Amino acid sequence: MTSRKTLVAGFTALSAAALTAGMCVNAASASPLAFAKMQAQAITQATQVADTLGAGNGGIYLERGKAVLNVTDAAAQEKAKAAGFATKLVKHSFTALTSAKNQMDTVKNVPQTSWGIDTKTNQVVVKIYDSASQATKDKVAAAAAKLGDAARVEHRSGKLATYIADGDSINNGQFTCSLGFNVTKGGQPYMLTAGHCTNEGGTWSGGDVSGAQVVQSDCPGADSGLLTRPNGTGPGAINTGQKITSAASPTVGEQIEKMGQTTGGGSGQVTSVDESVNFDVGVLNHEFGTTAHTDHGDSGGPAYDGEKGLGTLSGGDTQTSYFYPLTLELQSYGLELA
């Protein structure tokens, strides 16, 4: 999570030949931008087909940049295959997984746990950290057991933590975070970062910006924070030069890039979506989990895939980094990317 001056996507019948032509990029040799475009095309096309399958839709995920459609019955499988997609026959529809995840959301006051949808395994993955109290462990495990094979429990070592620490990115003189995306509202420039950062208040500075004030701060629940940008609009790009032109929802299996003031750039893969993460500061909803490596000070930094902005970093552990979706941040605050 570097401190970034950063800114930081009717079903049409698809023939197998047309789909193959759209996926002709060799994943092993593709440039990051070409691979990102391949993933974006796969997600769009697969989602269009999945949305026509009704109860037969088990969700989609990516495997090496190519989409796989989960299906719950033979009719849905035949339709997906006719459109040129790889399929996997699964037990639970995506609607059923969402319902199971929502049942877990009724479990309150259980810090150091999380749960979200993993379409690749067709389950809700429930994570329980060894730093949780025994009462919390028992409470969450009991709730997960009621879901049967629609859920799996993973016991994790370590502790979930929101990432805010001293560093050389945007800071208020006491805490350091990372800039996620440069944005605008009504033609005025702003900076988007994590809400658990802006909750600390103060005047923020970093790079060519000084005197930035907190406009809005939402955490827990969401994890969004909006700062003024006193010196004018910043670039709609990551500090590597990668342009960010749109916001999109993440997909399990999607390869992503991240940037932060502490760990710099890097890559990872989306492992879960719509995750409820019970940090000590409270529950953060709709997060997506990734294998990207991040650390303290990276909070608020961007996750992106090519030209698509995906989210801003909330925190994590030694195995998983969680981001809050950019689409929800833009919608909630009425923002546009710079």
Automatic annotation (TrEMBL):
Intrachain disulfide bonds: C177-C197
Keywords linked to the UniProt accession: Disulfide bond, Hydrolase, Protease, Serine protease, Signal, Zymogen
GO biological process, one term: proteolysis
Signal peptide: 1-30
Record region (Disordered): 290-309
Residues in Peptidase S1A alpha-lytic prodomain domain copies: 92-145
Record-given protein name: S1 family peptidase
UniProt organism field: Amycolatopsis echigonensis
